[in-house]
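Subject: complex prediction, re-run

Hi both,

The earlier run crashed halfway through, so I resubmitted it with identical inputs.
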Amino acid sequence: MKPIYHDTIVVGGGLAGLRAALELNRRNVKVALISKVYPLRSHSVAAQGGINAALGNHPRGYYDNWEKHAFDTVKGSDYLADQDAVIRMTKEALERVIELEHWGCPFDRNDEGKIAQRPFGGAGFPRTCYSTDKTGHALLHTLYEQIVKFRQIAERKELVLYNEWLVTKMVVEDGKCIGLIGLDIKSGNLSAFKTNAVIFATGGSGRIYGKTTNALINTGMGMAVPYWSGVPLKDMEFIQFHPTTLVGKNILITEGCRGEGGYLLNNKGERFLEKYKDSEKTMEVAPRDIISRNITKEIMEGGGYEDPADPTSRHVLLDLRHLGEDRIMSRLSGIREICMKFAGIDPVYEPIPVQPGQHYTMGGIDCNIESETQIKGLYVAGEAACVSVHGANRLGGNSLLETIVFGTVAGENAANYTQGTTYGSVPSPTGRRPPRCNNKDNILDDALKCENRKIESILNSNGNENPSNIREELNKLMEENVGIFRNAEALKSALNRIKQLQERYTSISLNYKERRTNLSLMWVLELKGSLDVAEAIIAGALAREESRGSQFRTDFTERNDEDFLKHTLAYFSDEGVRLDYKEVTLGRFEPKAREY
Amino acid sequence: MVQKREICFKVFRFDPDRDSKPYFQAYQVPFVRKDLTVLEGLFYIQEKLDNSLAFRSSCRSAVCGSCAMHINGGYGLACNTLVSSLKGNKITIRPLGHMNIIKDLFVDLEPFWKKYEFIKPYLISKTLPSDHERLQSHSERAKLDGLIDCILCGCCYSSCMVTLTKDEYLGPAALLWANRFYVDSRDDAKDERLAIVNVENGVWRCHTIFNCHQSCPKSLNPASCITNLKMKLI
Ligand SMILES: Cc1cc2nc3c(=O)[nH]c(=O)nc-3n(C[C@H](O)[C@H](O)[C@H](O)COP(=O)(O)OP(=O)(O)OC[C@H]3O[C@@H](n4cnc5c(N)ncnc54)[C@H](O)[C@@H]3O)c2cc1C
Ligand code: FES
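This time it finished cleanly. Structure:
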């Protein structure tokens, strides 16, 4: 079968993917956007609190600038972020956020009518721009609106959407990405795509954990696809646990609640963060990793609440009552709705039961400051990528920023690359593409056949494993052994158990064998991604014998710059993960102890 | 010991390739946790009982619009409907209405998206400051509240009596978005926007029955948006 050809392909319809597609198309490059859900259903839609940019619109933000934003980010990262990348992000933040306003993003406003900004954890100034507590929704709609607009404007080159297609494989030849294999979820058919450049913007992998704020679709498959093709994953051991997720469903209760003045209380009604040295000064707006650890300690020391029938329900309280109904209604209306709908609690009158939960994947597909990977023609952006701007711990409001800034960077570089490789610098006079080597078609066709066989073997399997049992065990394992507090013994046992789960995966079977709209088949394919990415997380965590940012090792409680001020690279192989390391780019800010 | 209870999910099933007509299939779902949602119940069925059941989901927190369906007589989101909030010991689930079935609860939303795209859902501005944001007062911004919260789930569209009989009607969701851009102080295409909806299958088709308002899981009011646009046209 002849592959489907597009000049460039973006995989992922979240903020990073949409921004990349817009950038490509703006530069007159034809682009196809493949997403396993309608773009507006992407996980980005759930972001609540806001996006950082040192606009200095807040009265207390007068002296803020990109350099202070960069410093806060590097310090927050526990010095593992690459400083050149952080500087690029914080500088370009201003232009990108203004552009979002110009495109119609309904930001909240201050009294002067400028974009409003709120304080966020780990930031020296109020620099988080927001749209009530639904910033991700506002941003994703704004970018998707531009996609619709671009598609309607006649002069724009083509921008094609493949909605509800799951990319299962990336095809690499001679160190170059030449195409992809995608599954049309509705029909169940696989197709090969041929292209010059691919941008992966496939989001995070939170669903590897049981308690997570992430969407159900954040399985890790999006990171696994390039990983399987030889691209390393970087710093995967750094998993952010958000301190405040709603007990039961683990839906995020935004940091904005604390930014607005909410209190964290133990079972004696005390603001217990003052008992801990690393949070006594900044209290509720201390960085996430610190608060998550201190909540967990407080609970372990008996300061939490617990439903005796369910030990996983241990929690503390987040009290917003003193903010008053007006403020809660105007700035935190989404949170109020979540509490009322999912827990039957009105935060105007009752405190919210909260516990830490997995929230963000700091690590991701390894790339440089230009969003380039080790594979030519493969670019990555957003939560799926690791540039690294978040290092060992991400500051709230920086990841939406990363999607927008590096989505743009990836789009720009992929555009230049494509224009360089297809036409040279001058467009061909006929406007037609030069003939392409058919050899690639054969390679893609082989890959397609191989993927088809894989699917057939899952459907025809007469094994006895129910995939959902494997996923549940994986979730539990990651919660228990690879959570907020880690040690060698637990990690080693986790690594063994992952291998067993991978083994059991080979005897998975489904009681529905058709291909058409087989959602169970889709989840099975994704589960393989979850398992392999989990293995990279554990291997990285075990080898990193230090505590830094979000990784806390009870057997190595200090940061160790001498041995571990470096990025972990995890390579996929059939025998298991192979680890390597990479320098951190320092420069402007000297590593210091991270104190708040 | 927690008492093990079960609840019956009666689910609409249809595979147009294999079934001559739709039917309902009953499944027993354990109801142990009091915060069990309809979506979690559907996953239990798909994962533990019957891998063939097809439905959409993503955020599980009522913000992405994937899981809209008809639950016990009304449209709503499966992910924020607690089983405990429903009466009786049986839950009847159907797909969104006025849409072609791809499989079971998985419907073809293309016509819905086409209508949304038709109203030019993007800000049109003639002039822009070069290096700073446009200003907007609190009261101008407040006009967007209750409009920008739409998650395009399709509940209003499915519950509308007019979309039921008139395929070409733009429907409540698209018209809400038309109004969202119309009332934005930063938009410079007011006349064009009114012209787009001032057509036979635009605002004039709405009979102000308010089903859309009642069925909106975000408590938005598309009918009042349509009324606003009508007022501007007369
Ligand atoms: C509840 C919540 C609140 C948050 N709040 C904030 C906040 O206030 N501020 C902030 O800065 N950050 C916040 N974050 C983090 C931020 O929202 C995410 O990091 C960011 O939105 C990720 O965007 P993305 O474009 O990289 O990925 P996503 O939005 O996750 O998009 C990934 C896309 O890839 C597609 N995809 C994935 N795999 C495949 C595949 N194999 N084939 C085809 N398509 C695929 C999906 O369909 C999707 O379209 C929050 C996160 C959560 C969980
Ligand atoms: S799954 Fe997103 S709205 Fe229900």
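The two ends of chain B are 66 Å apart (CA to CA).

- K.
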